[in-house]
Write a structure and sequence with these properties.
The radius of gyration is 16 Å and the shape is globular. Strands 3-2-1-4-5-9-8 form a 7-stranded mixed sheet. The chain has a two-stranded antiparallel ribbon with strand order 6-7. Strand 6 and strand 7 form a beta hairpin. By secondary structure, the chain is of the alpha/beta class. Helix content is 23%, strand content 28%. The model has no long low-confidence stretch (mean pLDDT 91). It starts with a strand and ends in a 12-residue tail after the last strand.
């Protein structure tokens, strides 16, 4: 299965995906140094370095993902605006990066989507269509007709990580898929 990684950083999330048959074929990262390091680690991946909020960059990512027949999108937008360790600023522009993920999903219609962020993402509102709306409610409203949507806060300590770290995980699987993506039991 071919995948697109948005907000890829240096590719830590991609470390073992090849072992299960997932090839990240297109990635996007804002920071030039991180993008270069990512390309060093994953030379087979087509890295699009640039700001996803730029129409040119966004369209380039979508075009390359479409050409590569991407069936999975992974997205881990920056969390500083909603993290309890950050500013918790409801108007932080980084909170709105999730809308670019939603736009990418609507453009590409992948079979599966994995979004990961701080647990506060599930409790953060952003201005959408003139109103303050919870991020999960936007995802449900925009993508709920086409996708099954599973949302959960997980603690990494229950999944083999030697630390307690709570993460919001959102799994989407197309309703037309043979298999629905569900959370594993721990």
């Amino acid at each position: 299965m071919n995948a697109l990684s948005l907000f890829a950083n240096v590719g830590i999330a991609e470390t073992y995906l090849q072992d299960i048959g997932i090839e990240v074929v297109v990635a996007n990262e804002l920071d030039e140094q991180r993008a270069k390091f990512y390309s060093h680690l994953y030379p087979q991946c087509d890295m699009v370095q640039g700001d996803i909020t730029s129409q040119e960059t966004f369209e380039k990512v979508i075009r390359k993902a479409r050409e590569a027949h991407v069936e999975l999108i992974m997205a881990t937008p920056p969390c500083q605006g909603m993290s309890i360790a950050g500013q918790m600023d409801p108007e932080d522009p980084r909170n709105y990066l999730i809308t670019y993920v939603i736009d990418a999903i609507m453009d590409l219609h992948p079979r599966y989507v994995l979004m990961e962020n701080v647990f506060m993402q599930l409790q953060t509102t952003i201005r959408y269509n003139g109103q303050h709306v919870l991020i999960p409610e936007i995802i449900d409203a925009v993508l709920g007709d086409e996708y099954y949507i599973e949302k959960r806060v997980i603690d990494t300590k229950f999944y083999g990580v030697p630390q307690q770290r709570k993460r919001a995980i959102i799994l989407l699987s197309k309703k037309s898929n043979e298999n629905r993506w569900l959370f594993p039991a721990y």
